[in-house]
């Protein structure tokens, strides 16, 4: 009997624990409605004290704790610039801190000095007329995590379906509600100076990387100056050759040829003399064979040339008279 009683008590404790956990989740906003709309945002122009960080968003808790210790009665704010699904965690940019004033109200100078003393910067966001916004209960510390897993998927789908363009997500932590805001106007005005500088550096690095890729992939082009000089040099001798007659090659311009078979220059001279004498003997034989025919021999042909010159001179003299 006692064993059954103990077992029943154990089951009762487990059931009560599960009910308590489930009730706590419901109170934290597990099944709360998420109404996303486009229009005027829940806040006006604000002045904030912030610290700019780069890294995983889950590490922002320490900065929130520090800012709340300086101004415990002020609303906290977080500005998140990158999508952790597409950007590595170590490169995610965010700025967290407190809202010093809203609307026409001016920030307390003493608070400003306190925040600056602990390394916080001061910046102002403008009032916008168009933004995607929603709210989520802020009742327990678990509400922050539930808001991340419940709100952001719905807001992302809402923005993609309507093809809206913005810059960043803002989270304003009020007493009983967390306001989520995605500005659609004055987009660049929500970038703190550190985030702007980082974005410019990334753009410059991407441009340099693109130029490096172009230089590596593009083919090597010839030098324009050297190619133009080569064309001029090739055209210059061609134009000169049209005006001036070709000079006969001289011994200095003729290329020297290596003797074949190891022969010397003296052997070549002797060979040329032998060939010349053989040609003379052949001409003499041909002249002897042609005697008695109509064609005169070579000696008679040479003797006739002076007579032709005298006849030409007499003709020139008659023309002058």
Describe this structure in words.
This protein has helices spanning about 1-30, 60-70, 110-115, 140-160, 195-215, 225-245, 265-290, 300-305, 305-320; strands at about 35-40, 45-55, 75-80, 95-100, 120-125, 130-135, 170-175, 175-185. It has 9 helices and 8 strands. The protein has a domain at about 35-205: Multidrug-efflux Transporter 1 Regulator Bmrr, Chain A. The protein has about 325 residues and is α+β, with helices and mostly antiparallel strands. Mean pLDDT is about 75; it is low at about 220-275 and about 290-320. The radius of gyration is 52 Å and the shape is globular. InterPro entries: Reg_factor_effector_dom_sf.
Order of helical and strand elements:
HEEHEEHEEHEEHHHHH
CATH architectural label of the domain at 33-204: Alpha-Beta Barrel
Lateral strand order in the biggest sheet: 1-6-8-7-3-4-2-5
- Please outline the major beta sheet: 8 strands, antiparallel
Biased composition (Low complexity): 218-229
InterPro entries: Reg_factor_effector_dom_sf
Region (Disordered): 195-321
Biased composition (Acidic residues): 200-211
């Amino acid at each position: 009997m006692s064993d059954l009683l103990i077992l029943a008590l154990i089951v009762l404790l487990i059931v009560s624990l599960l009910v308590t956990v489930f009730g706590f989740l419901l109170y934290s906003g597990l099944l709360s409605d998420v109404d996303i709309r486009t229009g005027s945002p829940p806040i006006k122009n604000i002045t904030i004290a912030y610290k700019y960080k780069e890294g995983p968003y889950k590490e922002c808790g320490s900065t929130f704790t520090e800012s709340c210790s300086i101004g415990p009665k002020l609303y906290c704010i977080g500005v998140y610039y990158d999508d952790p699904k597409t950007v590595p965690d170590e490169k995610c940019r965010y700025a967290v801190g407190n809202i010093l004033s809203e609307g026409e109200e001016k920030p307390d100078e003493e608070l400003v000095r306190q925040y600056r003393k602990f390394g916080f910067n001061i910046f102002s966001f403008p009032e916008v007329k168009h933004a995607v916004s929603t709210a989520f209960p802020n009742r327990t510390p678990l509400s922050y995590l539930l808001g991340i897993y419940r709100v952001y998927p719905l807001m992302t789908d809402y923005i993609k379906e309507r093809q809206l363009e913005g810059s960043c997500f803002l989270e304003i932590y009020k007493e009983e509600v967390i306001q989520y805001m995605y500005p659609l106007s004055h987009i660049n005005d929500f970038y703190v100076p550190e985030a702007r500088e980082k974005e410019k550096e990334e753009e410059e690095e991407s441009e340099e990387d693109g130029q490096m890729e172009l230089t590596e992939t593009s083919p090597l082009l010839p030098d324009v100056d050297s190619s133009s000089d080569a064309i001029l040099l090739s055209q210059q001798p061609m134009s000169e050759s049209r005006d001036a007659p070709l000079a006969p090659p001289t011994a200095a311009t003729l290329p020297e040829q290596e003797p074949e078979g190891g022969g010397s220059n003296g052997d070549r001279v002797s060979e040329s003399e032998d060939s010349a004498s053989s040609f003379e003997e052949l001409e003499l034989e041909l002249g002897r064979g042609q005697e008695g025919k109509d064609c005169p021999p070579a000696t008679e042909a040479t003797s006739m040339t002076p007579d032709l010159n005298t006849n030409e001179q007499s003709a020139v003299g008659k023309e002058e008279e």
